[in-house]
């Protein structure tokens, strides 16, 4: 157990140590300062502006900024839909994969454009190489850049005084992609290739099995098809950009995506490094590092608690395993013990659990174990992390601006308690900002609860379930929590490649991505027009331990309690059934 604890501490420490300098680097990028890559990348950046006829110094109003973000995302959605639908006539399709059905193409296009990367399919079976690298990988770069750009605009809303401009959306997306995502992913892709991750345009290879397998019907299987493709370049950005869509159907549990302990460490740290770094970027950009530290601590405390609960649950396994005697759940040297169902033996419980917590805290969704096989409580915590709106670090940019929605609600409630007009970072928080913050915070509960409630009433949904009862409800609930949290991970055991699921989940992803985004920009525009308010003795401190505690409580009250009835019918009910 001590070895497992040390692993958890090691992973968390590496994550924070990597995020701190990256946060400082991103702050310089946002402020337009020169960095060590400037001599190489600045000419490329200026060339892009000339080709696109973009004024990098333009100061867009929040409405123009939002319109640009929506137009860019809408165009991306259309192009990706067409690529997926007609991939059979496009190049780089050595396996002659047919085009996707309209509803699968719609769901996948929405999924990758909203930074969700939910997959209703096994990628190596239904996507061509062209769809993978020109369709999905491109979106894996630009969608986190859009989230980062919106966060930059919100920061400017806090720092500007009596102005209307929030910067240029096109310049923000270009700089974030060019200076942050591409350089890191270029290096990471080469490192992953060195570890054995595939990067090839060759056809799938058929090889002989070392030991033939005899099926139940007596058929002997002597060969296996090995799916290849340009995987490493997509895996690097799928992790760094909190995307998560797997190049292979089994995602990061597949040895071609994640072959070694070192590749696993890189991919796992990439899950959260940018969202964590954004906390430190925020503190530097608003010229008060304590504000960034306070938000970081609130997120970090919730992450550690979540990780601890899942770790204890999976290590303890279930009473049925303990009583049966056929499964050894006791940890020993060289054996992790606990509930190993659905987990790779090469990763064990600590690495699997850490990945599960990290990927659902971020809006990533990649997995190296099957969450459907977790214990009821072990599976509930990843679900809850998504239901909170993925504000425990969350996605690139969108996680932090989602948490700032909760921050605004916290200072408003605290202001009511002491009878003062609430303030945050020297700006008064008034009814308009509160209305927009409510939209940011409640978009996820609305999408998840309404969507899962409607789909559970359809007979086709019941037919898609692999498990009955409480666990079956958990499968549907997890699917909508994943879509409604722009996460993308799956509980498995649920056939979602149906018209009803593909359309419903697609609509949920669109709502939860763009409603909070527009509301956040509205907040930014309103704050930028306001004057600064001087700090006084009655000003609520937003960087002390009390505020961190209040912020955590508001997140749990609004997020967790919204879903408690649904969780009580799903994983909580399954937990008590397990004890019976």
Oligomeric nature of the chains: single chain
Number of contiguous helices: 20
Low-confidence stretches: none
Q: What structural class is derived from the secondary structure elements? A: mainly alpha
Order of helices and strands: HHHHHHHEEHHHHHHHEEHHHHHH
**Morphology:** globular
What proportion strand? under 5%
Describe this structure in words.
By secondary structure, this protein is mainly α. 64% of the residues lie in helices and 4% in strands. It has 20 helices and four strands. The chain has helices at 2-30, 38-52, 62-85, 102-113, 123-126, 129-159, 169-195, 231-240, 261-285, 289-316, 319-324, 348-361, 376-387, 398-418, 431-456, 459-464, 469-484, 499-528, 545-569, 571-579; strands at 205-214, 220-226, 423-424, 427-428. The strands form two sheets. It has a two-stranded antiparallel ribbon. Strands 3-4 form a two-stranded antiparallel ribbon. Helix 14 (398-418) packs across helix 19 and helix 15 runs antiparallel to helix 17 (469-484). The radius of gyration is 23 Å and the shape is globular. It starts with a helix and ends with a helix.
